[in-house]
Write a sequence for this structure.
């Protein structure tokens, strides 16, 4: 298949993510990239805070999402979702993008724009003879907060964790803003 046909097919598909649509926080980035002849996105996330119930098997398809938000959260929202007999993990994950590029030179330009915007974990991978740039923010927290239904942390420590998650979401949002600026003013 040619790059143009791949782009048409990928962008014409139904969104298969859990959310079912592009996150509002990265919609502008996705629109800018997809409007350019030499680029298209295959996946994106603006960053999120999640509570996830993970069974002893650690199988992803057996895990249960108790809370997912693409914005900041608070103690009340977290505590409301803390109802489970399994292990519960609190996670904050940074933004991520996968972008197909027509040429190696196009990939290099995108990598420079992303790194200049603060996305340190950015690189290229080859997938089915396609140049795919993976852009990942380094803001992350992942910690267990309940074991077999027993809460392991008190409200004070949980509040500290939530504040850290929210601060990382703010830093993530700043990088997204810088990336939008870079895409508009430096890359294209």
């Amino acid at each position: 298949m040619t790059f143009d046909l791949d782009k048409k097919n990928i962008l014409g598909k139904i969104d298969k993510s859990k959310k079912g649509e592009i996150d509002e926080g990265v919609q502008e980035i996705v629109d800018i990239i997809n409007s350019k002849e030499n680029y298209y996105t295959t996946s994106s996330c603006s960053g999120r805070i999640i509570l996830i119930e993970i069974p002893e098997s650690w199988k992803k398809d057996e895990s249960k999402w108790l809370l997912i938000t693409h914005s900041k959260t608070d103690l009340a929202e977290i505590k409301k979702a803390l109802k489970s007999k399994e292990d519960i993990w609190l996670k904050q994950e940074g933004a991520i993008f996968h972008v197909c590029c027509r040429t190696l030179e196009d990939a290099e330009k995108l990598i420079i724009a992303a790194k200049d915007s603060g996305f340190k974990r950015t690189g290229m991978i080859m997938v089915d003879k396609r140049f795919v740039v993976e852009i990942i923010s380094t803001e992350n927290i992942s910690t267990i907060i309940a074991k077999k239904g027993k809460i392991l942390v008190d409200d004070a420590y949980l509040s500290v964790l939530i504040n850290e998650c929210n601060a990382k979401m703010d830093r993530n949002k700043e990088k997204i803003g810088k990336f939008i600026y870079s895409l508009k003013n430096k890359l294209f």
